[in-house]
Amino acid sequence: MSVLVLAEHHDGVLVGATAHVVAAAKAIGGDIDVLVAGENVGAVAEAAAKLDGVSKVRVADNGVYAHQLAEPLGALLVELAGDYSHVLAAASTTGKNVLPRVAALKDVSQISEIVEVVDADTFKRPIYAGNAIATVKSADSLKVITVRSTGFDAVGESGNAAIESVDTIVENSQSTFLKQELAQSDRPELAAAKVVISGGRGMGSGENFTLLEGIADKLGAAIGASRAAVDAGFVPNDMQVGQTGKIVAPELYIAVGISGAIQHLAGMKDAKVIVAINKDEEAPIFQVADYGLVGDLFELLPELESKL
Amino acid sequence: MKVLVAVKRVIDYNVKIRVKADHSDVDLTNVKMAMNPFCEIAVEEAVRLKEKGVATEVVAVTVGPKAAQEQLRTALALGADRAVHIETDARVESLAAAKLLAKVVEAEQPGLVILGKQAIDTDNNQTGQMLAALAGLPQGTFASEVVVENDKVQVTREIDGGLQTVELTLPAVITTDLRLNEPRYAKLPDIMKAKKKPLDVKSPAELGVEVESRLTLLKVESPAERKGGIKVGSVDELVDKLKNEAKVL
């Protein structure tokens, strides 16, 4: 048995999710190789080589893999997959974009967003917005899997794996990268933050999200949002927590002005401690909150900030 | 240009689901069903492309039991011109669905195929990508903006951290994200007219596709319930509880 993990990286930096995917690979067992595909990814490969449990880092450094477009990256993975029993990637937008393509080209099923490895063929994954957990067993010779990073603790960084280059270069005449607009933020990454404070429709406006910033600064927290807040144009959509946004499982999740629709709960109900601040004491969020505070967020938030 | 749009019949997104007592699956008896929300967005985008004069014909397709024709009729009421139903009572996984859709793509030769990014029942997020792979087409997943120009399409994609724009050669496969558009409601006269629009029924066997999966569903369980929490009376009490009881501050 041997596992290939697709490394996740942005702007020349290895993304934390990769360490969680390696943890899932360790639970499966066998040798673990990490594939780093992109352009000018030397530093990413070195960071991947430090992850505990990794035997080998394979580096495909070529302009055709820049921005990890699905067509060339999928073709590369199809070339390499023959050496492995499992191909894993984070259930990020990159992993979700590429892995089903690989699975279809290898004529196998893809298993999405696993949260637990039962054995090398059997996995648990949430369905119906996290309201049920399915156990699925694959009889495919190759398992192609995306991993929900909040389901696995990250491995350490004391490894020293060998780095080798992959010479495979595929053609891509079908897709071209045009541009990218990334939201700038100095705060911790939403999916990896230990504390998350999120605002919903109750925040009233985008300007009012500054009320969350002081608290986020004091707690070292990332700022999230419900879909209602995103759809109302208060904040950009990459801040959205929920079934169709990011899945978080921080130590502490503070939901402010969020009613708690099932689609939102799907993204945060695995948080260790949930705090809800809402003026409607009947809001469904209070059914999952460990601590609820009923009242006006415009009075409570400044008070909370001053007392932290 | 012909646009093919795939729709799926799923449990209504407002329904609180129940797991069957024998843990074999989720209980769908007497539960309200509807078109998957992401598929509504796909239909809307196809219809808007037709209204702009980019698309000449919109064909809706679904895979599923007889009852799934309700969702095809909805798509027709929203503006699709005709529909194709691949009828099967089997549990069709994404790979088989993609193979069936690839056969329809081969027969219909659309310029653009639009699907939702994921179905809210299985939460797989696979079928569009698999279809693109099988049909040998480029893919624009999680689209929040679609612009067709000559023989190319520019797709703005919602990625972790922001937005990415790619240009794809046509034909191409696109999967919709929530912010692509606001789907319209079907009007009563259109619902009446939709009943007369053509709807072809085919079987997986006719298309030469084996729908059986090598993936077995062993068990479905309810997730661990969270313990009921408490309401605190003040910010001071909240901070105290977080520091001393939950120990997260």
Automatic annotation (TrEMBL), chain A:
Domain Electron transfer flavoprotein alpha/beta-subunit N-terminal span(s) in chain numbering: 3-181
Protein source organism: Billgrantia pellis
Keyword Transport: yes
Domain of life: Bacteria
Bound cofactor: record note: Binds 1 FAD per dimer.
Residues forming coiled coils: none
Pfam families associated with the record: ETF (PF01012), ETF_alpha (PF00766)
Assembly and binders: Heterodimer of an alpha and a beta subunit.
RNA-binding as UniProt keyword: no
Name the UniProt record assigns to this protein: Electron transfer flavoprotein subunit alpha
Cofactor(s) demanded: FAD
From TrEMBL, chain B:
Classification via InterPro entries: ET-Flavoprotein_bsu_CS (IPR000049), ETF_a/b_N (IPR014730), ETF_b (IPR012255), ETF_beta_N (IPR033948), Rossmann-like_a/b/a_fold (IPR014729)
A Pfam family recorded for this sequence: ETF
SUPFAM superfamilies per record: Adenine nucleotide alpha hydrolases-like
A single MF term (Gene Ontology): electron transfer activity
Keyword ATP-binding assigned: no
Sequence ranges assigned to domain Electron transfer flavoprotein alpha/beta-subunit N-terminal in this UniProt record: 23-211
Protein name from the UniProt record: Electron transfer flavoprotein subunit beta
Species whose genome carries this gene: Billgrantia pellis
